[in-house]
Design brief:
Distance between the termini: 23 Å
Bound molecules: 2-amino-2-deoxy-6-O-phosphono-alpha-D-glucopyranose
Number of strands: 10
Order of helices and strands: EHEHEEHEHEEHEHEHEHH
Shape: globular
Number of domains: 1
Radius of gyration: 17 Å
CATH topology: Rossmann fold
Strand content: 15-25%
Helix content: 25-40%
Length: 263
Amino acid sequence: MKLVVRNDDRAVAAMTARLIADLVKARPDCVLGLATGRTMERVYGELVGISAAEGLDFSRCRTFNLDEYIGLPPGSVHSYRTYMNEHLFSRIDIPIGNTMLPDGSAADLVAEAARYEDAIRRAGGIDLQLVGIGETGHIGFNEPLSPFTSRTRDITLAPGTRRQNAALFDGDIDAVPQRALTMGVGTILEARRIVLVATGSAKASILAQAVEGPVTSMISATALHFHQDTLAIVDEDVARHLGHRDYYDSIFATDPEFAPFRA
Ligand SMILES: N[C@@H]1[C@@H](O)[C@H](O)[C@@H](COP(=O)(O)O)O[C@@H]1O
């Protein structure tokens, strides 16, 4: 893992969006793994801005989202499909048929999970997977106890996750579904590159455990230590409990990959 600390959530979003934009320019047929949540809203806002300013061509790009709630009515404003359409897909020139999310309304969730895994495989795998981190340490919706070898499957959400995500359901925790379909930890680890984005003081403790604590399936994000190419981009607020800050600053100051961001 590499970790860089930027000043604030805006700088984190700008750097993340720039990495995605550069990938799309270099490989217009790339496969992107996408995530949802408030952190990603800023990332997609920046990406939409770059796309408009630089004329990014997403027409051959394909995307796979990490997860989707189970049991929401089709077209629900709370679904991750609606979130993605609103924040990104309707604002760039990607054909909607190239954008994939697991179908949380499928009658047969086991078959749907297998179909999703197969679609990722047939696309040639994911080039860059964005992940956020939940307050339970989840990536995707891989709650504590998720095996590191897990694949796309249905899962029960932790009460803390439902509380955290209630803000997106007008504050009504009872409206947050109990279950979701999510890529597994093992699915995520097969992406060629993973970019973890975390901001805000509320996640400072879980980020420190995820990055510097022992590897454990009680905190799914610690599985990222088994991946060859994970970059964590975080802001000052979320970085406050990290113990090796001077080293992370050295990474940013010296790694050639970050030269364009040092100017
Ligand atoms: N399933 C998503 C996660 O993939 C995301 O990382 C998390 C963080 O959300 P936020 O950015 O709103 O803190 O939200 C949801 O739980």
